[in-house]
Every structure is written in C-alpha cells, then in structure tokens.
C-alpha cells in the first residue's frame, strides 16, 4: 500500500461536497479524482477535472473510493470498484435492495477488500462517548434504548422513504451502542405528505441481548430532534446528536422519606451530569476510521456486513408495517 492513499470520489452533490472537503483534510489520504455525471454544482473540484463516470474514476489509479451518489446507483459502482481492487466507502443505506447489498458484501469479502457504509451517526461525539462509557460499565446492565429523529422533509431525498434514509441511522447506532443485533421488530408507517414513500415510522423491537428498543422517525415535524436515550441499571444516558452533548441522569441512592412516594419500588432522582469531551466532526472521524481500516487496523467503521444487517432490519420493519405483524430476524 502506498504511503499516501490515492482517493477517488463518485458524486459531489449535497453529501459528496462534504466528502470532498474532508478527504482533503485527512492525513495520509490524497483526493486525486472526482467523478459526477451531473458536473460540479457546488464547485468543490478545485483543480481536478470532473470525470464522467465510475469507469473514468477507476482509470485514474485510485486505492480507495467514496461513493456518494443516489442509493440505486450504489451496487453498480461498488461492484466495479471491487473488481478493480479498490477499498470503498458507500453512503448509507448500503443499497436499494437486500439482494444488491448481498452482492456487494460478497464482492468485497471475496476480493479481500475493505467495504464500509457511511452510517455517520456512529461517529457523532456524543454517541462515541456514550459507547465508551457503556463499555466501561458505567450504566451497569442496559435495559432500553429509545431514539427520536424528527424534522422537516429534505427535498433532496427522492428515491427512498424515511425508513431507509433516516431510521437506518437509528437501527445502526442502537445495535452498535448495545453491541447486539435486533432480533424482533414491529413497526407502523404513515404516508401523510402525498409522496409514494412513507414519511413516518415507529419501530419497536428487541435486541438479541434482550434490550427493548423504540425508534421514532419522521419527516413531518417542524422541530428537529436527534435524541438517543439509553436506560439501565444505574440511570439513563441522553445523547443529543444535533449538539453533540451527552448527559447522565443517575439513579438516586438516598431513601425517600415521603411515604406516599416511597411505596413505589423503583428508582429515585439522583445527580445530573453533562460531560465535557472533545467534539470532532463526525465525517472526519469516519474517514479516519476508513483510512485506518484500509491500513489493517480495527476501527468502528460500519462494515458492509453491518450495513446489510441494518438494511435487513429496516426492510423487516417495512414488511411488519405492511402486514401488521411482528417480524423476527
């Protein structure tokens, strides 16, 4: 492997423009080629020529690639990159279908290449800190994870519904935070805005480790919310991924003297702590994890296998909502 990884970027739209910026900032990586059949709407190419397609990008002689085009084009680009021996990070979701995602998983595994999926919330500083504290045992046993991801509709999303676009974030981060896959889901969807895809979904589920889960996601709220609440033996963590803040609500240890309340055999209010920690840009941390994975290190990069598992959970949730029945995974 070269001392500096030669990087190619497919797609310089709303997300691709950020990848272009960050690829130029990551040590040990050099952005050498950009391709987008739609040109360069945000003017991020700099001195680079904007190539017409994935084949031209591969011909530029790249070691790694980032695929930031609409979901339905992921499979074609990824399979060509795998065949060319290029380590690849595709934006989430992994693919437009489970069959396409599985072909991508097998292509990269068969070629011995790093294949990653850009579930960027895993790299949010609040969730990174939460995961570190859970791993250290600060919460004790984990009982429940509840997430809320709500806000106005993003007009740039046209090819998938809110489940694949947004709920996939919550499915990935929930499974990662508790280090256990979903084993059962039941979901409800709503179609309120006149588009063909769902714009609201609630997923209720359980992980293999027994943690109960609730993911509330929609594109129809005038207020933007990005919250993850993890409740356990010693209290509750609240991660706000829009601000990067992490707060801990401890279970109180002082016996309550008010008799009418103390008959309830539950927890009591304890100290509340908001932690201070470095808040680095999630996309840059993700790119560093991708680089390090390519260099053979163990990182938190979302593998294609994990991205495929997340897509399977989301598809199961959509099946559940359609059939009005719980779905096992």
Give me the CATH superfamily of the largest domain.
Answer: Dihydrodipicolinate Reductase, domain 2
Distance between the termini: 39 Å
- Outline the biggest β-sheet: 9 strands, mixed
Figure out the total of helices: 9
C-alpha Rg, in Å? 21 Å
Structural class: alpha/beta
Strands, count: 15
Order of helices and strands: EHEEHEHEHEHEHEEEEEEHEHHE
The structural domain count equals: 2
- CATH fold group of the largest domain: Dihydrodipicolinate Reductase, domain 2
What sort of overall outline do the alpha carbons produce when their principal axes are compared? globular
CATH architecture of the largest domain: 2-Layer Sandwich
CATH classification class of the largest domain: Alpha Beta
As a percent range, the share of strand residues is 25-35%
Helical amount: 25-40%
Show unreliable segments.
none
Report mean pLDDT, rounded to a whole number: 94
Query: Biggest sheet: strands side by side, in what order?
Result: 14-13-12-11-7-10-9-8-15
Pfam families: GFO_IDH_MocA (PF01408), GFO_IDH_MocA_C3 (PF22725)
Protein name: Gfo/Idh/MocA family oxidoreductase
Organism: Microbacterium soli
Domain Gfo/Idh/MocA-like oxidoreductase N-terminal: 6-119
